[in-house]
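User: quick one, sequence for these tokens?
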């Protein structure tokens, strides 16, 4: 009797719970399950096993691998631009397999005791032979990316400008590498290089710079008089217009004695020095480091002496002015 009552109670409980679950989930539609595949674009991973070897022909098409330029001494650095196109391809190989199977069955009849025992002959396979021919065929030629891993200049005076590395170029994409070479003061021919390392191999680009000596532009007496009048009106005029070539570019990036020879000697030791421009070696005023620094940085109003400090509109930094003042203080004795 107890078992019958317990069973009846359990049936009522199950009926109640199923009703509650039906009420809770009634009207709630579950999304239909889908099996649509999610695809992502493939990621190119460069193979670095060939980066140390030479770059084969036909990988990158360069506009030139050796470039030459002519510059005038003390007029700034030399600039180069190398353009190239990714022409790299790979050959996809497929396997065409022709299978020809030849099976030779050699039966051996066993007529010994076992034949009499089972009442029949027993045979077995003695040899099975098969032959497979595999032929390799070329399917297609596929363009592939090329990754530039690094670009190394031959020395510290040469710098390269390019996108962040590693730089991956898509098939057929164009690229550009800029190179800047800081030049010495003397004339002559310089040879520099850039080593370009890629995941397909390395390539050396050669730079040739012919440095010609600086020649002061010829100027007539009328031109000199006109320029002097302009400088008396605006002593900073030597840092503007056509004057930039002689009074700004020649001293760019220089310090100490080389800066003096580029920016100061052009006036103070020039062949046609104006009477208003003093001979620095014959000054009758006591000099020291601070004397030279103040005159160079701020110049003098009402004279031809411009202010060279960048804070006063000049082309020189505080460091350049400090080295220039130190050089003058050591090379020109105070009187």
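Assistant:
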């Amino acid at each position: 009797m107890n078992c019958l009552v317990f069973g009846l109670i359990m049936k009522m409980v199950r009926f109640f719970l199923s009703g509650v679950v039906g009420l809770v989930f009634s009207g709630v539609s579950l999304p239909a399950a889908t099996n649509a595949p999610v695809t992502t674009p493939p990621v190119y991973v460069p193979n670095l096993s060939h980066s140390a070897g030479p770059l084969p022909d036909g990988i990158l098409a360069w506009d030139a691998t050796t470039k030459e330029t002519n510059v005038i001494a003390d007029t700034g650095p030399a600039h180069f631009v190398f353009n190239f196109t990714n022409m790299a391809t790979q050959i996809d190989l497929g396997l065409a397999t022709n299978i020809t199977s030849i099976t030779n069955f050699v039966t051996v009849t066993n007529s010994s005791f076992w034949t009499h025992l089972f009442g029949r002959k027993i045979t077995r396979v003695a040899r099975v032979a098969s032959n497979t021919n595999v032929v390799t065929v070329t399917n297609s030629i596929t363009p592939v990316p090329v990754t530039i891993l690094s670009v190394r200049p031959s020395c510290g005076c040469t710098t390269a400008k390019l996108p962040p590395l590693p730089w991956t170029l898509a098939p057929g994409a164009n690229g550009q590498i800029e190179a800047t070479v800081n030049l010495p003061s003397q004339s002559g021919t310089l040879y520099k290089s850039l080593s370009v390392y890629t995941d397909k191999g390395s390539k050396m680009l050669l730079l040739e710079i012919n440095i010609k000596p600086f020649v002061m532009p010829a100027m007539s007496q009328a031109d000199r008089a006109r320029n002097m009048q302009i400088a008396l009106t605006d002593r900073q005029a030597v840092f503007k217009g056509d004057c930039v070539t002689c009074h700004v570019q020649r001293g760019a990036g220089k310090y100490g004695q080389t800066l003096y020879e580029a920016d100061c000697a052009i006036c103070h030791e020039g062949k046609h020095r104006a009477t208003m421009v003093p001979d620095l070696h014959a000054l009758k005023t006591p000099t020291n480091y601070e004397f030279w620094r103040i005159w160079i940085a701020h110049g003098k109003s009402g004279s031809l002496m411009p202010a060279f400090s960048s804070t006063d509109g000049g082309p020189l930094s505080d460091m350049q002015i400090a080295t220039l003042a130190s050089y003058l203080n050591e090379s020109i004795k105070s009187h």
